[in-house]
What we know:
mainly alpha, 7 helices, 54% helix
Amino acid sequence: MVITGPDLTKAPPRSPRVRLGGYVILPRMLDKGRATIAGKNGAYQFSCPLDRRFFDFTGISPNSLMNQLATGKSDELVLTWIRKSAPKQRTQSEIEFWSETESRYAPADVESRKFFNSLQEQVAPTRNDIMTWFDLLDVDDYVTFGAKA
């Protein structure tokens, strides 16, 4: 079976803000997973630290999710699988609360802040509105494919 997905050498994955079943991060992760299977992930890494926050919340393993993607399942079928198979079953309220919390996630310690600031300096040195990891990922995706921050 040929897995099709976005070519992340030509365009970024969906924003981490985009939701599927209430989950932030998930659509972006699905894009990266499918692109990895197809060999078109470019600089994007599946199961990066941000992705692992989703895995920790649901209890799903990266390998299990990749196995689902390798079958060619759509976003909706993957979501159905997550709802049925996640070791940590969550209510819709828990998912919404987690997603809101994740969307505001910012560096909390000195080392994380240094790393965050160094990345921001590379992609958007004159911007002072980049406060969260989602902000930084969105601007990085934008700049990576030729736009100006």
